[in-house]
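batch job 7 of whatever, protein = DUF3800 domain-containing protein
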Amino acid sequence: METSFLYMDEFYSDHRTFKHQTAKNRPEYVALTGLLVPAGIRSEFRDRFYRAVGEALDLPANTIPPMPQIHGSSLFPDRPDDVKLRFLEKIAKACVDLELSVVRSGYYWTPELKRMFPTPKDTLGPCFLNMLWFATSLKSKEVWPVIETDQSAQQDRAFAGAIQTLDYVTTNVSRLSLSVDNSNLGEVLYCSKRSIYGTVVDLVSYLLDARFLTQKGFAVTEYKENLARIAARLNPIILRDEIIEMAFEGPPDHVPGRGVA
């Protein structure tokens, strides 16, 4: 059975951090973006990633400065936009060439959902469950979920705790009693901000948000438009991209009581 690693990135949209004034009413959502990485492509992907970093930094000959932390929202702050875009194009092309897969699942953080999940981070549980349904559909692969650690008990409970509960119940009760077949799931692993795959899934998440804004018709900066165009290059490897609006309904007329169901 082929082993793959599902690197995940948490994303929280917040109109207060969006610089373009016309998009202040953008819908809030919480999402997990996943990058499914086959174990066997490590060497080539590493070489392509670090060559792209070196070209973006314009390294002098025989000089190796400290490796910067790379994030989509603060990408090479001292470099011009065209350099940033070329770097992202190279990363997107490497993902497609090496047949990585992208999956994103999220929820609009509506007032109704906020009553169920008081903070955006609380909403990660349903997002992760959707990721597990995706991972367990890949019966020919053993999938190990990987998340960048924030060293919080809440994150550990939402991710590693969910897998632990699945394993515990499966062993002591029955897999048939669960909605997730965990037969091909490994345990949750954690990475730091120095993981290149953790970095790349952050970049992919950033690109997909730019595409989301343009698809929803928001006026965005020219830079964001270019990000959306790069995101389109990932289309051949995007297996799922969904932001779900949870439906809430009251009880039927013949049922006493009030509230959401």
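notes: The chain has a mean pLDDT of 89.
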